[in-house]
Write a sequence for this structure.
């Protein structure tokens, strides 16, 4: 994970999933629901954008991430959970150049 300007760059979709998900899921209306991590919520509230090095990953193409997580306060196995994500782009050289230019302007 690397931060440049208002972008955070990730090497893989798995690294981004770990960033987005809280380490547990909760049960809502009979289904397991993933929870956003505090770090992800904080970045979204600050207007941060995310760039992933994989152009074909689900986070970039469909704006969803999935991960197996534990159920909060339960001794059961992990369950699949899905989260809708926003401000996600493919990490191309143009994105890095724009982020670097913006970081220079902010200084």
């Amino acid at each position: 994970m690397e931060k440049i300007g208002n972008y955070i760059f990730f090497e893989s979709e798995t690294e981004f999933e770990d960033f987005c998900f809280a380490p547990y899921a909760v049960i809502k209306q009979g289904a397991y629901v993933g929870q956003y991590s505090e770090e992800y919520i904080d970045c979204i509230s600050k207007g941060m954008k995310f760039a992933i090095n994989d152009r074909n990953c689900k986070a970039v193409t469909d704006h969803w991430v999935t991960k197996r997580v534990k159920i909060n306060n339960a001794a059961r196995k992990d369950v699949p959970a899905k989260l809708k994500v926003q401000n996600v782009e493919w990490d191309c050289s143009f994105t890095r150049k724009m982020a670097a230019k913006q970081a220079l302007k902010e200084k």
About this structure: The radius of gyration is 15 Å. The longest strand covers residues 21-28.
